[in-house]
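Journal club prep, shared notes

We agreed each person brings one worked example of a sequence with its structure written out as tokens. Mine is Band 7 domain-containing protein. I'm keeping it raw so we can talk through how to read the token line rather than staring at a rendered picture. Sequence first:
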Amino acid sequence: VKQQSAAIIERFGKFISVRGPGIQIKIPFIDRISGRLSLKILQLDVVVETKTSDDVFVKLKVSVQYKVVEEKVFDAFYKLDYPQDQITSYVFDLIRSQVPKMKLDDVFSKQDDIAVAVKEALGAAMQEYGYFIVKALVTDIEPDAEVKIAMNRINAADREKTAAQYEGDAARILIVEKAKAEAESKRLQGRGIADQRREIAKGIEDSVGTLSGVGINSQEASALIVVTQHYDTLQSIGGETNSNLILLPNSPQAGSTMLNDMVAAFSASSQIGEALKKESAESHGNQGGLPGSSKGPNPKRIVKEEPMDGLEDDQDVGG
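Then the structure, token by token:
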């Protein structure tokens, strides 16, 4: 008798003994070997098709590992014929009583629970016949092809949604950080421009003071500074090789004319402002008079501004 096997001996058709591994002797022509059983762990794969509670047909592959109990070889040989068919029937019954109570997603998430239920129920049933259920495993779950495609599409859509959310968050962070950087750049640029203009104004003030110290009045000093800056601007524009074509007056009178126009505009604006303030003060004074007063409101003063083509030579621009 081979290792991990057992031989059943009969005499004239009646069971005599179970012989284990090793050399065994029987009486010729009287005793005979009725059968042999393997004591190894065997595996049976059962494919069951059933329907879930959400009306989805699904196939489950259940692998059952079992073996013959060495002390119950007699029961395994004489009490049960075709044990594989018996185990298959039990598995079909157990699966079709468990899975229809679950949804498809629950079948995937609770396959270990299904395997445990099969092992416990099958072990209790087969123990009587001399078989021990070592383990039961749900090794494969295959839903209907169309349902499988739909599930893959849902999974892909969820992953695309998650990826889109991450991409949106990244884009939003990039835009926010870029806006912060631009705001900081503009702030620093504005501060630089303000400092530049402050220094320019201070330089002009110093230049006017220096020129006034050598006998040049403020108007002449301002005109000289404007002409100097005018030619500096022309030189800067002309030095750029990639600059566009710009037509500017280049005569010395151009800077003086621009200065006179600016001074005239400032003077006119100042006179109009003073006139409006005076008119407003007089209007409030008349409204505050006593009741019954015969004095009426003062007539509006019309300030007539004559065009100022230029300034007299002795006008003090620097005030």
